Amino acid sequence: MTTHAPAAPDRAPAPPARSRALALAVLCAGMLMIILDGSIVTVALPAIQDDLHFSPADLTWTVNAYLIAFGGLLLLAGRLGDLIGRKRVFVAGLALFTAASLLCALATSQAMLIAARFLQGVGGALASAVSLGMIVTLFPESGERGRAIGAFSFVGAAGASIGQVLGGVLTQALDWHWIFLINLPIGLAAALLAVRVLAPDRGPGLRAGVDGLGAALITAALMLGIYTIVGTGEHGWASARTSLLGALALALLAAFTLRQARAARPLLPLRIFRSRGLAGAAAVQALMVGGMFGFQVMIALYLQNVRGYGAAATGLAMLPAALTGGAVSLLLSARLNVRFGERRMLLTGLGLLLAGLTLLTRLPADADYVLDVLPTMLLISGFGLAISALTALAMAGVDPRDAGTASGLFGTAQQVGGALGVAVLSALATGRAHALADAGRPVAESLTAGFRLAFTVAAGLLALALLLASVLVRPAVRT
Q: CB 3.0–4.6 Å: which of 31, 123, 127, 234 could bond 96 by disulfide?
C-alpha cells in the first residue's frame, strides 16, 4: 500500500532581504537567551545550594530537570513545527521559557525551582527545535544560507561561555535570582518581535501526522535515556539501576523505530535518514558536543577547586574562548565555507578542537593560566568553524517539508551528547580523584589527575568525531 507524505507547509513569497535579516535577528536573540541559560546556571550553583539548602545530590536536578525536558522533547517539537507551523511553535516556546524564567527567579523552595527548570526545558525545546528549519526556509540560496547559519552558529559558539561570564558577574554582584530575571526583557522582546517579523507558515495540521504512539515512545525513550545518563554520577555506570533503566530506554527506542517503519504518517519519517549528511552530522554533533560540554564543566571545576578562582574570575577565564569562537563563527565561517568548502572547514575545526583538548591532558596542579590554559581557550575557536559547517552540511540535503523534524533531530543529538559527555567525564574525574586521595596523594594533585583523565577522554571523543566526519559527512549531491 502506497502512502503519501504530508504536503509541505504553505508559505508566503520570500520576504525582502531586510525582513529576513530582522527575522534572523529574532531567531538568534531567542536562541541566545536559551543557550545562555543552559550555562549561566552552572556558575551560580553554589549560591543556589546555600540559599535553598540543597544537598549535593539534589542540587544536580536544577540542571538535570532542564536537560531531560529539553533533550526529550526536541524531536516532538520539531515535528509539531512541520505540522502546525514553525512560527507558532517558536513563539509558544519563547513565551513558556520566559514565564518559566520568572518562576525560577521567584522560587522559594527546591521543588519550585526544579519544576520551573523543567518548564524552561519544555519552552527551550519548542523554540530551538524549529529554528534551523525556519532559517532554511528563510534563506533558500546557498550563499545567504551559509551566512545566516554562520550568524546562528555564533550564538552556539559564544553563548555558553558568555553565560558563564554573565552568571558569575550577576551572582557575585547581585544574587542568583538575577540569572533568571535577565531573561524576562529578552524573552518578551523576542516573542513580540517574532509575532511581527516572522512570516506566517501553516502546516497540514495535526490530523496529517500526529502519530501519538510514536510521540509517546520517543519522548519517553529520550527522557528516560537522559535521566539514566545524568544519574550515573550518583549511582554509577555498572549499577543495577543504570542497567535496567538503560535497557528500558533502548527498548523504547527500538519500539519507536519499528513504529516509524510501519506508521502511515510517522513522527520521524525514516526517509530523513536517506540524507547521509544529516545522519552522519548528528553522530558527529553528539560526539563533538559531548567532548566540548564536558570540557567546559571540567575546566570550570578545575579553575575553582584546584586553582581557587571565584565565580566571576572563572567566567572571565572562559571569555577568550567565547570571543575567538564567536568572531570565527560570525565573521569568518561563512566566507571560509564558500571558499574552501564546508567539509574541509568542519575537519579543520575539529582538528583545532582536538589539539586544544590534547594540550590539557598534561595540565599540572599549579598551572599558569597564560601558559597552560589560554592556548586551549584560543584553539577551541575551532568550534566556530566546526559547528557552522556541520550545521550547513546537516541541513543541506533535507527536504523542506522535513526541515523542522531534521532540526529537532540535530538538536536532540546535541542534548544527548552533552548529557552523556558531562556524565561520563564527571564520573571518570571523580573516580580517579577519589582513588588517588584514598592512596594518600595530595588533594590538588588527586583532583588534577582526575581532570586530566577527563580531558584525555574528551580528546578521544573529538578524535572519533573527526574520524566519523571524514568518512560519513559529505556535501549533498545537487541535481
A: 123
